[in-house]
Amino acid sequence: MKLPFLPEIALDLAPEHVRLFDATGGYRSDTPPPFWSFAWPGGLALARYLIDHPAAVRGRTVADLGAGSGLVGIAAALAGAERVTAVDTDPAALGAARRNAAANGVSVDTSDRLPAVDVIVAGDVFYSAPVAAAALKSLRRARIAALVGDPGRGFLPERLFEELAVYDVPVRRVLEDGDVMRTRIWRLVTSGAASAGP
User: Fold this and answer.
1) Is the pLDDT of residue 37 over 90?
2) How far apart are CA 62 and CA 136, in angstroms?
3) How many separate domains does the chain show?
4) Does residue 33 belong to any structural domain of this protein?
5) Residue at 61 is within a domain
6) Taking the model in full, what pTM does it have?
């Protein structure tokens, strides 16, 4: 499926009318929902940013944290990253990332552990307090920069980040509260991240 906001990339996603738990037959606490079968606004905006600002990742090792479909990692690979690793705890997501990378003609490694890399990218990972805390801890491991796409879900500690860009991202009404979400690209402000630029 081609994405209107990101025509450079095609993904194998759930059909437009499908909601998050439709594919699993309803909520079950022992089975993670198939987040990987949707392109979320934070990931879409961050992928657009990387395609538009390839210097952010070109020639660098990159980890796509909470990779889901692999969208942001694929964008990093298309932007010229030296090596990309899609990182997710859901084996189904890692399988989706491998399939989507192959369909887009790029090489993306997969792992359930975060490797040591220059740049960490993360789309839409600040959606709950526990996940946000774990994501922030992981983002601080980037050697050069940590970049985040976030549509304002409420758990991003903005005081620790520098805003780089804003996008109005088309979204699925069955997943969100409207047709467009204003989504920001942020860079974690640390000694390494502060010196990195697009």
Assistant:
1) no
2) 16
3) 1
4) no
5) yes
6) 0.88
